Queue: 2 jobs
Job 1
Amino acid sequence: EAAEKGGHASFMEKEILEQPKAIADTLLGRTDEDGKLVLDEMNIDPDRLRAIDKIIIVACGTAFYSGLSAKYAIEHWTRIQTEVELAHEFRYRDPVVDDRTLVVSMSQSGETMDTLMAVKHAKELGALTVSICNTYGATIPRESDAALYTHAGPEIAVASTKAFTAQIAACYLLGLYLAQLRGGTYAEDAQAVMRELAEIPQHVDTVLGSMDRVREIARFMSDTRSVLFLGRHVGYPIALEGALKLKEIAYIHAEGFAAGELKHGPIALIEPGQPVFIVMPAQDSPYDLHAKVVSNIQEIRARGARTLVITERGDEAVRPFADEVIEVPRTSVMMMPLLSIIPLQVFACELATAKGLDVDQPRNLAKSVTVE
Ligand code: AGP
């Protein structure tokens, strides 16, 4: 097993470091020489895809958060209404689904029973089902109309990391492909976005190479009992995923919130010394979102929060209110989640390791949940 870990303390640590390759391999071979997306492997009649008027992404846990992250871009690029729902909730309500609905399931293992049941239900209702999956030939892709595989390689650690970023990349491919097929404003942009996406593995590598301070903070915080995570827009699902990682492997009470929701309740939790991670939106985000989150940081800092801010390089506006600034390379708005999740994965992994916990096999959890 030590050999399989390749000299790393845990599979999770190894898999975090494998993300540049996981994303690059997921993008590989999916464009032609002009940079146009080619997803023939899905084998779906393009006319069926052109007719789609609603997308529902179904998944559980980390895969659900990757769907939430991708929703912003998919809806923006395709102009198709996109919902993201926990598979076990979708299955047992009465969802509005017909043959113009595309149900995208997201699953690393391809064996999650809740997600499988949701896919079967969607098929019964007449939806077109596409499985984004990391395990070739698993049950969910076999039961779906089409599969788009992530090529993250086997993920051993119970806490999902490289599958998460690869899932976002695959969702982006699907979104851009739909935009390209359907024409319209974002069809022309698809190639430019693909070029940005192609640069992400390099940027992830840069982030991974600058994590010493994050590891130090994690070790220093190993007896912390509660950590909050705030994010807005594409940063919101990242806050949720950062909190899940900490709960799962470090057994620390962690909560993710939409930054705009603070004043509707969660701000009451802030007391002196409360650590809060803030996942900043890109500086050029629409609707002044960046400035809005800076003002959230001010509000919680004034109440004594210890603010750990993940933001783009060169973001001077946050500095006066940040106890720690964790920088990632500058990219476009939609690419940011692929970078800002990295410090949160490293933080959870290092903190759990510092606590002496079994990072790869956290208590009460299984890698693949094959019961409902
Ligand atoms: C992730 O860290 C979790 N262990 C868990 O939430 C997982 O993502 C979820 O069970 C879904 O698994 P899947 O991707 O294999 O369907």
Note: The CA atoms of residues 82 and 234 lie 14 Å apart.
Job 2
Amino acid sequence: MPATKVVVNVPGEDAYDVRIGAGILDSLGAHLRRVPALERTERALVVTDANVAPLYRDAAKASLAEGGFRASDVVVCAGEDAKSVAVAAEIWDAMAQLSLGRDCVVVALGGGVVGDLAGFVASAYMRGVPVVQVPTTLLSMVDSSVGGKTGVNLEAGKNLVGAFKQPAYVCADTATLATLDEREWACGCAEIAKASVIDSDEFFFWLVDAADALAARDEAVVSEAIARSVVFKADVVAADKTESKGVRECLNYGHTLGHAVEALAGYGTFSHGAAVAEGMRFAARLGAALVDTPLDLVEAQDALLDALGLPALSWSAEPEAMLAAMKRDKKARRGQVRFVLPRDVGDWQLVDVDDDTLLSHVDAWAR
Ligand code: NAD
Ligand code: MG
């Protein structure tokens, strides 16, 4: 199975390759050597977490060595807690201890947590050194490793400190997904489904046909789903690099209600993917009421999410509490909750929904 390459071209930034394929971690070092920004780079710092380190760190470091990089590593705790200013500072200290200069490269080996953390670390160390993303979760391959958003969390909220930092290269080795559990797998599937609804008929109906094979982790289908999602995300990011034009907000489809579900159920009760899938089901129904979303879409999306292992949740909260949680989300505007609604597959609209309308729909959802 040959590797696929997607080129990401963000205006004002160096173009970068996203390579997707099984076993390509072995050629990471050789490929990095050919990235113009890394031609003379001698040292690499692999940032990874405690789950991923025993699985893939040695392979990554061996491959970097073959490319002529002297590689060190830092292992952080697994999970969202690693996305903190304190952990970022520990990595900066480790880099200084290792005497890493501006001519080093940071290699983020792990899921979105490691990618966001290491990308942020790279964005600020010595005013910026290159970062390479080596995503090892389906979610990070299809979503977080591309687009350049990096950052850490504060007590006050998620991702409150960060930087836009495009990677120099992305290596998505689908063989690393073999060790990913079902819950994390489904998280990636939810973001793929989200991308397909927002993107086009072509992507959506391909995914509808491919859903069973994707759920069964068929290698060719997995790679194609990742490639299609990366192309979609790259196009959105190219159109709205710093999330200032309203285009990038489409990536929030399903996340408005989804974030409220995650928060009110208690973080970790439902996976991010399960919550986003629920949010997509809700947003499509809200769309049917507000922007004439066809019922065919609502039903086809339900079936797609079912097939991907993302069933409707048998959980609900008080509608008033849901409304309050959605208003606390940073995407609320002028007191109204803003939704990405699909007018049709490949055609979306931002809609500020007033409290009474939203309450009546959340009430129907909660029954
Ligand atoms: P994660 O990084 O926490 O990984 C999930 C779990 O899987 C962790 O326990 C991790 O150790 C483990 N893991 C990783 N790779 C594995 C493998 N190959 N085999 C076995 N276990 C493995 O979570 P995630 O879902 O990848 O990413 C979530 C993070 O991404 C959140 O912090 C979110 O804010 C961020 N995010 C960022 C963007 C962006 O644009 N920057 C977009 C979406 C999400
Ligand atoms: Mg998400």
Note: The mean pLDDT is 96.
